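FAQ: What does the model actually see?

It sees only this:
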Amino acid sequence: MTLKTTILIATIAALTLVMPASLSAQTAATDNTPKFHATLRTRAELSTETGEYRFQVRNARAVLSGNVGPSVSYFINTDLCDAGKMKILDAWAKLKIAKGLYVQGGQFRMCFGVDPFVAPHQYYFSDRSFIGKQMCNYRRVGAKVDYNIPTLPLTLEAGIFNPTSIADHNGWNKRLDAAGRLLFTPGAWIFSTGVMTLSPHGHRANLTGLCIGYNPGSFIIEAEYMLKHYTHSPLRDAHAYQIFASKTFPVKWGMFNTFAIHGRFDGLTDHSNSELNDNNQQYISDPARNRITAGVTLSYIKTKNLYADLRLDYEKYFYHSGTKVTATMGDKAVVELILRF
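And it is asked to produce this:
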């Protein structure tokens, strides 16, 4: 029996012993009414280098969540139109074992990083950072444990997952993907660090990351860095980084009651999709680049989950000389309307 198998069996046995007593102790009244929310993001984009344009429904996302009794919750997240494609993103159930201790199973984002967890209705920019889109955009099927320390604003998360795509849950595996994250949120500050290990296409990739941010309310500044290292492979290490800031002002401009300005600098070194070409050399799916993004957002905000954003962004890209740049990869202006309801 391998060490991984022993740890997994011991964890399941311990949870089996703890569950009955913990569930019988949960007697508090719970609101079991299902909650439904949706996000609609429509946009127009113009490549300022090629003169090409496109219209998109970038997201038509529907979320259903709620509780089944005082100790069990659920979350189902589907994108009915992700740039023309339908995707089932999240489908999980969470069980409260003890005060601050939860076990979650199903399909969800691996517990690593900060920017990858930002939902579309919470974006500060029209396009995600390279960290959230290229470096660490991983959902998997598996299970994780969350522990929120009662006396500290500290959360510990650790999970194990299938190493395969979420498109097929039927395969049997001998390898595991795993991730862990520590999240410390004292006052307006956020500190996070973590590790993740993946085995796409037979190559083991290990990621480490660090994030620090400050958000007292109307202002936020945040910086994050990730490193992807391949073990026993000719694939090169990849680095991704970002720093951004946003400032919000109350206004009375027609229907709009909030105005925000935002700016970001992010970058990515040559990033492989972990495949090799016929000459056993690294295949680069994401060439090295840096980007500066600046923009403004006008908002009508009625409640936390009922608002409209009108956003204008401009993105300036910087590539190494010789890189062939397409309309998608080049400088562009984006006008976006976001509805949350």
